[in-house]
Write a structure and sequence with these properties.
CATH superfamily of the largest domain: Metal-dependent hydrolases
Bound molecules: 2-acetamido-2-deoxy-beta-D-glucopyranose
Number of strands: 9
Order of helices and strands: HHEHHEHEHEHEHEHEHEHEHHH
Structural class: alpha/beta
CATH architecture of the largest domain: Alpha-Beta Barrel
Number of domains: 2
Largest sheet: 6 strands, parallel
Strand content: 5-15%
Distance between the termini: 31 Å
Length: 455
């Protein structure tokens, strides 16, 4: 979900008027399943041996791209379908058929188009807005996690719930779209390590440290670097990175300030991801990754998953909201030129953005971007890295680091409260330090109950 950016300010997307729902049930063949048998091995996936074969002249470039996508899963880092379902259907899956064409609602995602686009794996975003911070962010996040788990189960012919690198591969081999959960914004854990652990337990496999608001421990990308609240991450925030490493949860640095990126890279023992960002050198937007941070990914092993939001791709004055496939590919090539073919990925932000590049209008269009990389003479090996191998490698490494930390004691410290800050004075929250131990008999607690506006 993108509603920020110092240059571009895209509106909260509307998921369309309630036009008549078209029900087009598409039956899927088993072509995909047949085509992937060749990779029916554990990670790493079967590699294309002649890895630097150029595009054969005379070979159809689109077919070549699709062949690669049938061998190695394209794993997208960020899709906001859960948000769209919340807005449009209040999470009531009985009222929507994901097997139908949902484009009349303005959605970019449905099962027929995912299949047409040969999507192999997906991080489903369980985004909740910044105004839920200090209020019901945890509750809303759990609503969204429940929603993802329910539609994955309901459409089990298509989706498979997975939480590991191996799970992504196994789902792909079985002809399913491996479905993972990504939390977009540190406010989803309401500043406790215990909430972070519980979110991991219910399936969250990455957390974007902030959305477009600061948490009480991290500066977001909308904050000027001259006016940071924490200079990046506070000490509590740095320990949160260590706890994420210990749990095996990916640290996502999309949406954070450059200082936060650097602090996280200083602390993290595991590779990080940018689940949906682009290159700042080509488009100077604070949502994008500057070259000096890209350079650090070489040592860290992390990846930038390329976002499709035009406002982050084409920053020419008056050209915002307009871009095309070659411009998306330019960003990918720039990122690769700075930190190598091992640091690229794809993270569209479909259904979290109001505009899309020409040629990449919805999830059915990924093969055309991959075709562009074929046309640009990217080797099959490098295209495989771009679409899925890099992400799978990062997850494997995050799991390996987790395993080395099994003796590390969980982080327990509570975040320091600052009573001068409105968010901590919120009357809707229990003030534990003020006598929670004797609650509810204490005078303070009954006064609090008498005055609270929350019931
Ligand atoms: C790709 O390689 C072919 C054959 O060597 C060449 O003709 C073509 O110009 C190259 N395309 C690009 C974009 O470099
Ligand atoms: C608490 O917050 C207030 C208001 O933002 C700020 O002026 C003050 O410096 C903060 N105190 C601490 C100890 O962080």
């Amino acid at each position: 979900m993108d509603g920020d950016g110092s240059i571009s300010q895209e509106p909260l997307i509307s998921y369309g008027s309630k036009r008549t729902r078209k029900i087009i049930v598409v039956a899927f063949g088993v072509g995909i399943a047949a085509a992937v048998i060749a990779i029916a091995i554990a990670v790493p996936l079967a590699s294309n041996s002649g890895s630097d074969d150029k595009t054969d002249t005379g070979t159809d470039t689109l077919e070549h791209a699709k062949d690669i996508m049938r061998r190695v899963p394209l794993v997208d880092g960020h899709n906001d379908l859960p948000l769209a379902i919340r807005y449009e259907w209040k999470n009531q899956l009985a009222n929507v058929d994901l097997n139908s064409d949902l484009s009349s609602y303005g959605l970019h995602t449905d099962i027929p188009r995912l299949r047409e686009g040969l999507v192999g794996g997906q991080f489903w975003s369980v985004y909740v807005p910044c105004d839920s911070q200090y209020n019901d962010a945890v509750r809303q996040t759990l609503d969204q996690i429940d929603l993802v788990k329910r539609y994955v189960k309901q459409y089990s012919d298509t989706f498979a719930y997975v939480t590991t690198a191996q799970g992504i591969v196994d789902a792909f081999v079985a002809g399913k779209i491996g479905s993972l959960i990504g939390m977009e914004g540190g406010h989803s854990v309401d500043s406790t390590y215990s909430n972070l652990r519980m979110m991991y337990d219910v399936g969250a496999r990455y957390m974007t440290l902030t959305h477009s608001c600061n948490t009480p421990w991290a500066d977001n990308s909308g904050r000027s670097e001259d006016d940071l609240e924490f200079g990046g991450l506070s000490d509590w925030g740095k320990d949160l990175i260590r706890e994420m490493n210990r749990l095996g949860m990916l640290v996502d640095l999309s949406h954070v300030s450059v200082s936060t990126m650097n602090d996280a890279l200083d602390v993290s023992q595991s590779p990080v991801i940018f689940s949906h960002s682009a290159a700042r050198t080509l488009c100077d937007n604070t949502r994008n990754v500057p070259d000096e941070v890209l350079e650090r990914l070489v040592e860290n092993g992390g990846i930038v998953m390329m976002v499709f939001y035009p406002g982050f791709i084409n920053c020419e004055p008056n050209k915002q909201e307009v871009c095309d496939i070659p411009q998306v590919a330019d960003h990918i090539e720039h990122i690769a030129s700075v930190c190598g073919y091992g640091c690229v990925g794809i993270g569209s932000d479909y259904d979290g953005i109001s505009v899309t590049p020409v040629g990449l209008e919805d999830v059915s269009k990924y093969p055309y971007l991959i075709e562009e990389m074929v046309i640009r003479n990217w080797t099959d090996e490098n295209i495989e890295k771009l679409i899925g191998r890099n992400l799978i490698r990062v997850m494997q490494e995050v799991e390996r680091v987790r395993d080395t930390m099994s003796d590390t004691f969980p982080y327990e410290e509570w975040i320091e409260r600052n009573d001068s800050k409105a968010e901590f004075n919120n009357e809707c929250r229990t003030h534990e330090e003020d006598g929670w131990a004797s609650y509810p008999s204490s005078q303070k607690a009954s006064e609090h109950l008498a005055t609270t506006q929350c019931d």
